[in-house]
Structures are given as C-alpha cells and as structure tokens.
Amino acid sequence: MQNDEELIEKVAEKDDQAFYELFNRHEQKVFNLVYRYVGAYHEAEELTQDVFLKVFNSAHKFRGESKFATWLYRIAVNTCKNYKRKKQPTVVSIDDPEISTALSAPASTEPVAILAEKRKRAIIQQAIDTLAPNQKTAFVLSKYEGFSYVEIAEIMKVSISAVGVLLFRAKQELKKKLLPYKQRGEL
Known about the structure:
Layout: H1 4-12, H2 16-38, H3 41-58, H4 68-86, H5 97-100, H6 111-129, H7 133-144, H8 149-156, H9 160-183
C-alpha cells in the first residue's frame, strides 16, 4: 500500500486511481472539518468537493515540506475561510434544519432528550460561529479533529505559541458566551 506522499506524486501526473485512493482515505475527515466550520451539510458537501478539486489541480505544487495531511487540511481551512468571507452574514436559528442536524448520534432515543441535545449543539455551534476566524479554525482543528498544537501550527502557518493563544482566547470567549445558557440550565 502506498503512502499519501507517493500517491500525491502520482496525482500530479494525473493518475486518477491514485486520486481516488487519496479521496477515499481523507474524504470523511475533510468533510467533518468543513462541516464543523460552515455548519451546513449541503454547503459542506460542496466545499469538500471543492477541496479535492483543488488537491487534484494543485498536486504538482505539493513539495513534501510537510505531511500530505497537513497540506490537505491547509487547503480545506483556506477554502472554508474564503467561503465564509464571500458569504453574507446570516442569522442562525435553532429551528434551522442545517444547524439542528446532529454533530454525532444522539445519546438517547427519547424525543425530549433528542430535542434538548439538538438545542445544546445549536447553542454551542452558534457560539463557535461567532469566534474570530483564526480562533474558530484552531478550536475546530483541536476540539473536533484532534490535531496537536504542532499540527495546527503547520496547517494554519502560525507558531505553536500562537496556536496556544488562539485556543486560550477561543475557550475564554466561548465560556463568556455560553455562561448565560449554563446559568439558566440550558447547557
């Protein structure tokens, strides 16, 4: 089995089979990242396709200075940032089906518990969406994708200490925004 770096070299030579292999290996993780960043399922599907189209068209630019996954996530994060920058700000409603779509399987099968869990996730997602773009990126990469500070620094092209500061500020901001909900027992 070939590693990602060998496959991307073949993709640079327009090897479709190598591209499909990379796509199959990484599509779900890229989709998860994009979905958590944009918060809408259909938009995340389209942006994930855009990311892999960019990978295919830019494969010749991969220099091997970092791992393929780091390069791929950098493309995904930049695609999300560009999308958010171009998109008009919208009001997020908890009743919005895109927002209320579960980030994971519900812990209960009771309708009341499922509804409460969806509401909690929507409140948290709204708070995450209000973070500064770099804070949001660092938070999503750390909390949802499980990347280390070093990996986040490579993906975002910032120092490791900058990642620490971004995560600290993101957590402080989220605590401040979520405190009223917690005090009311909604979280």
